[in-house]
Design brief:
Layout lengths: L1 H11 L3 H19 L5 E3 H18 L4 E7 L7 E3 L4 H12 L6 E10 L2 E8 L6 H10 L9 H14 L4 E6 L5 E8 L12
Parallel strand pairs: 2-4
Antiparallel strand pairs: 1-3, 4-5, 5-7, 6-7
């Protein structure tokens, strides 16, 4: 609804290029969200989904937000649970960047590390205390009514699919802000209802 309101506001202001860009990004965002009812998509598609989301937010928050998205070519065709990144990027924007004084940046990265595929969402936003970070990491697997449903859902889906030892881990950045790291097995794995992950 906020995005549609922004499109109306841009159209009324005669900002046609911004309207076209935003509608295109919104279309791509919904295409990946629906993705023919599939639960698994490629990392390339997941990263494309996040780029669409961030392009929309960049138009809305152009005065406070920048972003950078990278994915190693070797991981492009690796299958991933759909909507793994979006709740994490949304948190980085709304709890990190929007609560910071001045401009902020979000980085989304995907890379191979030893026997794992790693996705990172980093921000240089308002940050958290060590106690808050410890509480988040302790709460990810367990029910906590004060902890975000979206983040816990991402972690539990990964953990149920691949086992304990995979999923989300939060850490403080020395320069400020927070990084959440998602670890997945690097190799392909047979999953119920899907050809391969």
């Amino acid at each position: 609804y906020n995005t549609l309101d922004t499109i109306v506001w841009l159209a009324e202001g005669g900002q046609n290029r911004a309207v076209v860009d935003m509608v295109t990004s919104l279309s791509e965002f919904f295409r990946t969200t629906l993705s023919g009812g599939k639960d698994f998509i490629t990392m390339r598609e997941e990263i494309g989904h996040i780029k669409s989301y961030l392009q929309i937010q960049k138009i809305r928050y152009q005065d406070i937000m920048d972003y950078e998205v990278t994915l190693e070519k070797s991981l492009e065709e690796r299958r991933i649970l759909k909507l793994t990144l979006q709740p994490l990027v949304e948190n980085a924007l709304y709890h990190g960047i929007k609560n910071k004084r001045g401009r902020g940046r979000i980085w989304v990265r995907g890379y191979a590390k030893e026997d794992m595929a790693v996705l990172e969402v980093e921000d240089d936003g308002a940050g958290m205390t060590e106690e808050e970070i410890d509480r988040i990491n302790a709460s990810i697997s367990e029910y906590d009514e004060n902890f975000g449903y979206g983040v816990r859902n991402v972690h539990k889906r990964i953990e149920l699919l691949f086992g304990k030892g995979y999923g989300l881990y939060y850490k403080m950045n020395k320069e400020g802000g927070v990084t959440v790291e998602i670890t997945l097995p690097a190799g392909k794995q047979k999953t119920e209802g899907e050809d391969h992950v």
